[in-house]
Amino acid sequence: MSDHDSSGSTSQVGDFEDDTNGDTNSDLEVDRSDGHRDKHASSLSSFSSSLHAVIRIKQKYQAMKKRRQNLALSLNAAGTQTGAPVRTSPKIFTFDPLNLSGHSSLDNHIPQKKKRRRRRRVMFPQSGGRRAPPKQERSRAKGCLYLLCGIVFLQVYNAIENLDDHVLKYDLEGLEKTLRREVFGQQGAVESLLSHLQEYLSTYVHNKPLVLSVHGPTGVGKSHLGRLLAGHFRSVIGDALVLQHYVLHHCPQEADAILCAQKLCTLISEMVEQAEEEEKIPLFIFDEVEHMHKEILDALWQLVATKQSNEYLNAIYLFLSNLGHGQITKYMLHNSSSSITASDHGHLTKELSPILCNILEKLHPLWAEAEILPMGLLEKVHVMECFLEEITREGFYPDHTNIEHLAGDIEYFPTAGGHEYSQTGCKQVVAKVNLL
């Protein structure tokens, strides 16, 4: 029986597909023949023979398995050296317990490596592999930009700090107190004038001169306002930088208008040059402009509007006239009401300014460059204040009854909305006080 098994196992070395089934069936047939011959033996001899047969089958199987493993290793080594394809042994029947992983128990002694957690792959473009981010070069322009921002900040900060210095130089607070104390019934015009001066005098460098044009009926305080401004600016910047020009006094004849215009332009140019040297802003006051000749108006318009040089930009021009007095009188008489008080005149001046602008721009283009400041009619209470001021100045006792009697001799418009407006304002106050 061993020779038969040896020959059967030797013939199946080359064919690994049916090795397990063939050997098992041949051994089972031998056992059946032996059992048939010994079926009349005792039960003990039958059991022992069966046990010996099983042991022999297991020993043969282990020997065959060992030979197959050695043969497989030799074939793998030969195929690796010669480059031939490696043949794998087929699955065979074993008495070993099943392994869920699909491998026999003989392979359990091989230590398995601990599976590492697979990291997520980082995908890169196909054009190239991993590349480090490009190193950014330090731009020199950034440093220059920071330096420029610092310089601009210092300049702006310095300019803001110097704003108060320019305003303090011209003492606008003192001017405001003077105007509110001595100019009666013109709160709106005074506030607008001080606002323009405050804004313009806060800095020394300008792109255009400040041109103000004050308009109002007779006796409302236009010339008085000009004299107060001239006196104040003479005290802060000097007499040489303040010009008061009265048209009927300096150039009464129309035949001399061209010569007067040339002399006026020369004088203004000299004063502006001197003001540039002293870093000050001059003041030019022109009274009675309604009598000014066209040649002089044209010359002043060239200085104000053309900007021939920087020296003509830092200057203040103040024009005083009664142009448009009819529109001012008509507006105040038709829009007065019992609810309007002296503090509401500022609102009236804002409404009067666009009306006067449309009229004055048609007369001459000079007023297109000017800020219009209308002065309204004076009421009886304002005329009484003018009498009180003049009487006190002349040294008389300020009797209220006498002042009211003098104010009653002035001519007034018909009462409109509870307001009694004077036709001549405070123009006759000085003459009546001199008669006392």
Detailed description of the structure:
It is a single chain. Helix content is 55%, strand content 6%. The chain has 436 residues and is mostly helical. α6 (187-201) crosses α12, α9 runs parallel beside α10 and α11 (325-334) packs antiparallel against α12.
List the helices and strands and how they pair.
Blueprint: H1 2-11, H2 19-37, H3 43-82, H4 140-170, H5 172-182, H6 187-201, E1 210-215, H7 222-237, E2 242-246, H8 247-250, H9 257-278, E3 283-287, H10 294-305, E4 316-321, H11 325-334, H12 345-363, E5 371-374, H13 380-394, H14 400-408, H15 429-434
Parallel strand pairs: 1-4, 1-5, 2-3, 3-4
Structural class: mainly alpha
- C-alpha Rg, in Å? 61 Å
- Within the largest sheet, what's the order of strands? 2-3-4-1-5
**Residue fraction in strands:** 5-15%
Number of strands: 5
Main β-sheet, in a few words?
5 strands, parallel
What is the helix tally?
A: 15
| Terminal-residue CA separation | 173 Å
| Unreliable parts | 1-36, 100-109, 338-343
Mean pLDDT: 78
Question: What shape does the CA trace take?
Answer: elongated
Please bin the fraction of helical residues.
40-55%
Order of helices and strands: HHHHHHEHEHHEHEHHEHHH
